[in-house]
Amino acid sequence: MIKNIFDTVTLANGVKMPRLGIGVFQVEEGSELVNAVKNAIKHDYRSVDTAAIYANEEGVGEGIRQGLKETGIQREELFVTSKVWNSDLGYEETIAAYETSLKKLGLDYLDLYLIHWPVEGKYIDAWRALETLYKEGKVKAIGVSNFQIHHLEDLLKVAEIKPMVNQVEHHPCLTQEELYAFCKENGIQLEAWSPLMQGQILDHPLLKEIAERYQKSVAQIIIRWDLQKGIITIPKSTKEHRIIENSSIFDFELSGEDMKLISGLNENKRVGPDPDNFDF
Ligand code: NDP
């Protein structure tokens, strides 16, 4: 049973990761960013997702510090994720990139560090670096992002430590059923990016009808659907009222029938790049 915003998923190594977090993609350094992270913490979010390429780790760090100060909670109660960018994939480069992210965030460890994209010929060396960081106790959990089944199979052949998380695009138009099943079989937790399809799915007539029945917003219905599927989700908003709205999802439950209706919207449609065909 999913009870509240403090609910966690236990990753393969025993680390507990919050089921709901806030994402900060496309939020530039500045007060909007700092306030979004601070407000999320004030409204009981315990997980923040950033990446080196978002070029906002300093503001995220400042938002975290302000959030901790205002709420009195401890760093250990938060779960912070960042990701190594493609140009830093390589053993030494990835270790150095981790240190740079820590410095920018002003933290002495991350809870989760991910390989952002599966760049052919590069992600295995980067994975070795993540394994080293993990074994040295510098990061609590390690994982990947945008990995398809064949990327995971390739990695699992040589990995000493299995990735604990795979963060991928996931929303009602892209339900990733095969990848979901593969990850489940292999003890890899799936995490949804662009869970709201970057806002492009919020006018969908079926979702609006379901939302009306539960007296909830479409965003709340989708976030709840993620959680009931057992998928970690990190909707992005910089607006305090939406930060509150996106986490007000613990007082209702979608029926099995509605869960199926939402999953039935799948069209294998992406808003982001295709992990099998990207050139960055
Ligand atoms: P989302 O699907 O979370 O959608 C964000 C958009 O929806 C924003 O425009 C936001 O606007 C709007 N929105 C949020 N809540 C509501 C609401 N309740 N009602 C109406 N509109 C709403 O998109 P993202 O691409 O940001 O994905 C979420 C996170 O996933 C990212 O921030 C990032 O951390 C991660 N990510 C990871 C990727 C990867 O490759 N690993 C790639 C892309 C994202 P506003 O802010 O104005 O409220």
Structural overview:
The chain is an alpha/beta fold and 280 residues long. It has one domain: TIM Barrel. Helices cover 40% and strands 15% of the residues. It has helices at residues 31-42, 57-71, 91-105, 123-135, 149-158, 177-185, 205-214, 218-229, 240-247, 256-263; strands at 8-10, 16-18, 22-23, 47-49, 79-84, 110-115, 139-145, 165-169, 189-193, 232-233. Strands 3-4-5-6-7-8-9-10 form an 8-stranded parallel β-sheet. Strands 1-2 form a two-stranded antiparallel ribbon. The longest helix is centred in the N-terminal third of the chain and has 15 residues, at 57-71. It is globular and about 55 Å long. The structure holds NADPH dihydro-nicotinamide-adenine-dinucleotide phosphate.
How is this fold's topology laid out?
Layout: E1 8-10, E2 16-18, E3 22-23, H1 31-42, E4 47-49, H2 57-71, E5 79-84, H3 91-105, E6 110-115, H4 123-135, E7 139-145, H5 149-158, E8 165-169, H6 177-185, E9 189-193, H7 205-214, H8 218-229, E10 232-233, H9 240-247, H10 256-263
Parallel strand pairs: 3-4, 4-5, 5-6, 6-7, 7-8, 8-9, 9-10
Antiparallel strand pairs: 1-2
Helix pairs in contact: 1-2, 2-3, 3-4, 7-8
Tally the beta strands: 10
Query: Which CATH architecture?
Result: Alpha-Beta Barrel
Q: What is the H/E string?
A: EEEHEHEHEHEHEHEHHEHH
How many structural domains in the coordinates? 1
CATH homologous superfamily (4th level) name: NADP-dependent oxidoreductase domain
Q: Would you tell me which CATH topology applies?
A: TIM Barrel
What's the number of helices? 10
Write out the distinct hetero groups bound to the structure.
NADPH dihydro-nicotinamide-adenine-dinucleotide phosphate
